[in-house]
## 1
Amino acid sequence: MVLERIYVVRHGGDPSLTSYGIDQSKELGAHLMTLDPGVDKVYSSPFYRCLQTMSPFMELQHQRAQTGSTVTSMLPEHGIREWFGSAPFDHPEPAAPTILKSMFPSYDQGYVPVVTPSKRGETLEQLQDRIAMALRGIVEQCDADGSRAVVLCTHAAVIIMIGRILTGQFPVKVDSDDFKAYTCGLSVYARSEPVVASLARAETEDSFASRNSRRRLSHSEQGM
């Protein structure tokens, strides 16, 4: 069994979540419970606002623990964390894992991220490389353990880059209004035969395509 769906969501109104953002996250959590195929794993940016956004869904999963298969942990993937531009100084870092674990019981301290960005930020080219590497690692993990559907909770710039990488649709202008990133919005990427998504870099395409049995990902968006 291989990964069939990638559900990409943005955090709620921040920081930290406003009352509206909290309401959004509760609506999102309830909606995620209805998806088919159901969510098998949750990967989240380790920044507080993303973990907080996924908390209502994790609580609903916990309530269903006695009824069958549930998602029990949030995997803090630094490969999908916030993008900061390249700079000669250190950018903000997520809180320490021990602190996040005390706030979010489902936070998995034992998870080893696929990739971690530089504290000094990244160029757009480096961002694309980082996201492509993270996606390859996530898909590889899910294909190996039989997960059919996963949630990635992340940030606006990362969501846009995820959409471009997974579909192979790269605009001529990097600031084109192509993939949307509404707060608590949901984008669904589904594998389909047989075309390979053509990524911007040939080596990235070849590596990603081979790990995906040369399938591509189609895309749909759902506003919350």
## 2
Amino acid sequence: MEHRIELRHWLFGLGIAAIVLGAVASVLAADPAHEGFATAGVLSVAGGLCAGFGALCLLAGTVAWAVAIEVDDPPPAG
């Protein structure tokens, strides 16, 4: 079950990093220094895609965590 635990940690870490990267890109898109429509548009789209990817990674990490907990539970005594 060790590979599931490692996968879960990687998914959570990747998800958090992608959400932070998306937030930074969105803040840069709103910065007046990046007034060009193409630059602001690209940064805005990149921020949205990063945040969406991060949310999917967090969801996958949560599912991997639930599967690992379910598999690790001992069978009922009886």
## 3
Amino acid sequence: IATAAGELNVLDLKDGSTRVNSTLGGAVSAGLAAGRGELWVATEAGTLHRYTGFGEVQMRRDSSVYYPDELGNRLSGKAIEWYDRLGDGRGLRASFHAVPLVLDDRVVLSFSRESQYDYPPVIAFGKDGGLGWVGTDPHRIVDSLFGDSYLTPAAWYDRLIMADPGSNSIYSISRETGEILWSTGLGSPNFQMRSSPVVADDFVYIGTYGGFLHKFSAQDGERIWSLYLGKRELAGKFFAGDQPLPDFRFDPDYSPEKSSPILATPAISGDTIVVGTEEGFLYIIKDTQ
């Protein structure tokens, strides 16, 4: 259990006793990730903690992400170090507000930063402690700058699916290199996107700040359908993949002031989707397409 007070507690399932109590040095606003005897915790202070072994011997390693400062000073690869929280000390330290995605050979994590840059806010750490990659968009597939991110990427074979909270873009990233492969625009620009994408079979589902639930192909980003849930009286309005989505700049019914955002991550079971809105309604949807 990680807390907003910046503590990690590991409890015994049998009697509830505390096995480990560790100070993280920063609040945890997202959940933990665990796998194969490892525990990964990311903090708002900008540290990613890796714990291994919870018996008499416990190992902990910390990592931080630095990005160029407001003067544009670029960082060397050594700015992200496994054993050194401060790296070479240049630039600004990013903060983490998302659950780490633990894969077989690496850990992928989105991050938050001040201002906007020309590369996506996602990074991969190797399990051996080295830097895997920092996300890139060398071919300018996304036609806007990237801000910060509060969501966890979804894995689909050799790709990762992400969304950019400062635009209307959903994009796919190479799992091996971090390079953006395709991008899909989803109607009006979205802000503060908190809903993480979910993969089911070969499709991806994601909720947006504009109150839409979208389904699209993980292969090429083609939008399959969109369902509006942002306002109770209009909830359930359906838009097929070949139908244009409403633009709140011209259709006030879909304005952010009137729409309730989807901040929660959808849950998928078979052909059933469950998702809640900030308006306070929980929707259960049967996907027949």
## 4
Amino acid sequence: MKSYFSTSIPTFCLLSIMAITSGITRATKSDSEWLAAEAKALMETGWWSNYSRAENHCTWPGIRCNAGSVVEIDLGGHGLNGSITPQIGALSELQILNLSWNSLTALGLLTNLTHLKKLMTLNLRYCDLSGPIPPHIGKLESMVDLDLSQNGLVGPIPSSVSSLTNLSSLFLQSNQLNGSIPEDIGGLTNLVELDLSSNRLSGHIPSSLGQLSGQIPSSLGQLTKLESLYLHHNQINSFIPHEIERLKDLKYLDLSNNWFIGPIPSSTFTGNKDLCGSIQGFHPCPSSPNVNRERNSKVVKHNLLIVILVPTLLFFVSTFVLVTFILFRRYRAKTLKSDSSPTKNGDLFTIWNFDGKIAFEDIIKATEDFDIKYCIGTGGYGSVYRAVLPSGKVIALKKLHRLEAEQPAYDTSFRNEIKFLAEIRHKNIIKLHGFCLHNRCMFLIYEYMENGSLFYALSIDDEAVELDWTKRVNIVKGVAHALSYMHHDCNLPIVHRDISSNNILLNSELEAFIADFGTARLLDPDSSNRTVIVGTYGYIAPGSAPSLSSYLFYLVLSILSFCCLFVSNYILE
């Protein structure tokens, strides 16, 4: 017997040591495998792709461990994209998960978090989440702080939220949640903060939220615009705070069915608007039918007032607009009428017979304020400029020189040209598009003649070659037709008094046009009046004042110089 025990004891001790050693080995191996599994789960999220699995994951950014296990992940504002990966669900010791201010578009994968039985804080604020809140969120039994605010969540608030009995704060504001607030949400007895603002919720606030207890806070007196205060059927066990007397706009107050103690001071209620009841100093409240009748009467009066005021206001506004429009039209017509009549020193800018609009600013811009580089010639009393309008139309501008504009004779010539060309309508007489009579500058707007004057065409060999005899005869005929029209078809004959090759212009088709009517005048056959002799040197009839007979001399001389390629100066010499 003794021998048996002496042999068994060492054997037993050896077996015990082996068993303990084996258990420790298995425990060490189990812990090692667990840490490796955590590191693998974290790596598979893709959020720590720059780190090696061989490294201690507890040192990675945003991770806090306790006894080698991950208990907190804080990656707020790290620019994460995609979804909440299912690997997070393997972190069974996780207590805090903050992924706020990222772009995690899918909330449905919260299913992966339901295995986190120890998760106490979940912050997904500003994560661009969309879709409904999954019902299985109620499986996070240890949840204390839940923040899903500032996202695009839709649908109703799941009733499973009421299963989070440890919940202290719930933030769902600034989403697109609809439906009603779950009735069971009042069962969250530990709830301290609840924010459901900026959503599309409808219906009534659940009565279960009204099971209040404790004291009425004195800060309630700061709600100076409060009109209704209902605190009935609660368990409020305190004095009625004196701060309530600051609620000057309070109309309805109900503190019934509570555990209030102490007196009701009259100063707490006096001075308020429309308070009534059986309390001393208050007038009795009207019965319900009277109250309804009074409300209905106010509604009817309000609607009647709207029906009367709106049409009346519309009538007066319409009348005012109509009268203003009529007065404006009259003022504009009067202004146009006054502007259309010439004035000696006024501002006059008139355009007619033109397929577009010309503004004074366009003229100045097109010629760069009558720069010399746009000057294409000089007439009897001014310079001629070429201008291209914004529409692409090319026009000719005859501008009276500033010094000449101050001389009455040139001013008269300028007005004469406007007067005669405004009345003349002939295909061989230059067309006047408009004019500007202003103290700053005076100019005429003409149709542009591409080939310049006849004098220019005859004085350049290349241009003269193009004028064969047929074209020259047509030019003479055109000038003759224009002169015949001026002498015989006008009410009073118009004497040009300066027909020369300089004043005969040619267009692109080499058709002739008479221009420069600055020296023209009406000829009254019954009048013996004669003016001074005017005209271009070399084209004036010898010893003759302006008349129809002397006018023929101008034409014959122009024809001779035209046909013989001589200028008038050579003939006279």
